[in-house]
Amino acid sequence: MDKTKRTEKKEVKQKVHNVIIIGGGPAGLTAALYTARANLSPLVIEGSRAGGQLMLTTEVENFPGFEKGIMGPELIEIIHKQAERFGAEFISDDVVKVDFSARPFKIFSAEKTLLAKAVIVSTGASTKWLGLESEQKLIGKGVSSCATCDAYFFKDKEVVIIGGGDSALEESLFLTKFASKVTIIHRRDELRASKIMQDRAKKNSKISFIWDTSVEEIKNVTAGKVSAVVLKNLKTNKTTELKCDGIFVAIGHEPNTKLFRNILTLDQKGYITTEPRSTYTNIKGVFACGDVQDHVYKQAITAAGTGCMAAIDAERFLESEGH
Ligand code: NAP
């Protein structure tokens, strides 16, 4: 037998998974749990950033069912084990390419090619960070990107928010319920946020603004906690220091959709477009859930909810195709 024929024969024999789930945050893991319970033996490709944004959070106090709160990574571990119990399998490769042009769909990692009858995309979104070394070292030690998750830890403390969009203002308003003082630092002298949010923030006596300013450094890495920010006025180049106990970076999120450009329909901001009230993408048999298709709610519980929807959509799709 010549080599070509041998290769062809090997491809024919390769296992075709019922469902491959790309991404192992709350959306992907919930999709895994539901598809596993539907006897679909899903394969989850978690990637090197398994667990998603919850791995960056400390205590999660707003996930129903955990009266006393739960640490983000622990919550991920529990859902992971719950899905595993019903037969979900996991691999930790990073997906480098997908081919959804024909079925079975092809998913490529550096090591192998996997085949699937249905695919659930749950690659999430990543916080945009400032890119400072001190920022990276203090994440979870006073530096956060989620006021909803972490505001409670700043009761009667002074915090700084970086950004000028709706997220920055929304997070600031939420933080005023806990913190004694909230300072918004924006790189321009005009906010990007909607007028209504601007009015609300400007009316709040706990909120003050520092304009035309960038954050140059966060102190104090040696002490392992936030004590101040070094600021630079972009008009005068003057550097000052502002004492604070916490820093919230709210300069936007980026959906992790690089792999799907020119394959799945994305909106102007790069999020996957799904059909209303479903997880259907533009490709039949490919579903999207969690933050990769949601820039409105962005909560662990809503990600889990859409993960459940994607699993049900995938199950019904496979059934309709006679699998
Ligand atoms: P956004 O609208 O893109 O705003 C990001 C802000 O961060 C901008 O003010 C931007 O400054 C600043 N920024 C970006 N990169 C920066 C950097 N490297 N250093 C310093 N500052 C930086 O993002 P978002 O606020 O997360 O909102 C995303 C979308 O969700 C928006 O469409 C928003 O309307 C929506 N949203 C709505 C609500 C609501 O209606 N309640 C709440 C949250 C979010 P510049 O202005 O100078 O570019």
Number of domains: 2
What is the N-to-C order of secondary-structure elements (H for helix, E for strand)?
HEHEEEHEEEEEHEHEHEHEEEEEEEH
Q: What global shape is seen?
A: elongated
- Helical content, roughly? 25-40%
CATH hierarchy, class of the largest domain:
Alpha Beta
Calculate the mean pLDDT score and round it: 93
* Rg value: 22 Å
What is the first-to-last residue Cα distance? 33 Å
* Number of E-type strands: 19
CATH T-level fold name of the largest domain: FAD/NAD(P)-binding domain
Instruction: Name the CATH homologous superfamily of the largest domain.
Output: FAD/NAD(P)-binding domain
Describe it for me?
- The strands form 5 sheets. Strands 1, 2, 5, 6, 7, 8 and 19 form a 7-stranded mixed β-sheet that branches. A 5-stranded parallel β-sheet has the order 10-17-11-12-13.
- The model has no long low-confidence stretch (mean pLDDT 93).
- The longest helix is centred in the C-terminal third of the chain and has 21 residues, at 300-320.
- The chain folds into 2 domains: 14-126 and 253-320, FAD/NAD(P)-binding domain (3-Layer(bba) Sandwich), CATH 3.50.50.60; 129-249, FAD/NAD(P)-binding domain (3-Layer(bba) Sandwich), CATH 3.50.50.
- The protein has 323 residues and is an alpha/beta fold.
- It is built from 8 helices and 19 strands.
- It has helices spanning 3-13, 26-37, 72-85, 133-137, 147-150, 166-175, 195-203, 300-320; strands at 16-22, 43-45, 59-60, 70-71, 89-91, 95-99, 105-109, 113-121, 125-127, 143-144, 158-162, 181-185, 207-210, 213-219, 228-233, 239-243, 246-249, 253-255, 286-288.
- NADP nicotinamide-adenine-dinucleotide phosphate binds at residues 130, 162-168, 170, 187-188, 192, 251-252, 295.
